[in-house]
TrEMBL record:
InterPro entries: NusB-like_sf, NusB_fam, NusB_RsmB_TIM44. NCBIfam families: nusB (TIGR01951). One of its GO terms (molecular function) is RNA binding. Keywords: RNA-binding, Transcription, Transcription antitermination, Transcription regulation. It comes from the Bacteria. Involved in transcription antitermination. Required for transcription of ribosomal RNA (rRNA) genes. Binds specifically to the boxA antiterminator sequence of the ribosomal RNA (rrn) operons. PANTHER family: ANTITERMINATION NUSB DOMAIN-CONTAINING PROTEIN, N UTILIZATION SUBSTANCE PROTEIN B-RELATED. One of its GO terms (biological process) is transcription antitermination. Residues 8-131 form the NusB/RsmB/TIM44 domain. GO terms for cellular component: cytosol. This is Transcription antitermination protein NusB. It comes from Vulcanimicrobium alpinum.
Amino acid sequence: MASLSRRHARELALQALYGSEVGKRPADEMLTETLARTDASEARAFVRDLVFGTLESEAESDALIAPLLEGWTLDRLPTIDRIVLRMGAFELRHRKETDPAVVINEAVELAKKFSTEDSGRYVNGVLGRLMERAAR
């Protein structure tokens, strides 16, 4: 799968996770709705894995991310940033076939595109520290 379709798949996963969290709707319902808007059939399995993997490992990801937030708490973060960090933490921990630098770069791009002006830098710092800790 080309990196463009992986990037698109990550955007779709983010949209489904955001819709589920903000709209208080079941993730499988949001995933079905999100995937219905695209013909990227080759990306479907990856999107599904990202959505459900991120949700299933949420507590683990939060425990890893929370100590790295420097002056913030998870619940005070913009919703998009929180989801992007959880998704990135899931990929770094459970999708070892993806280069960590790619995971972080993709998370930064999602944060820059869908969140605040400072979000890209912030996500980069948190996930970079997470990767450093994992390497120890």
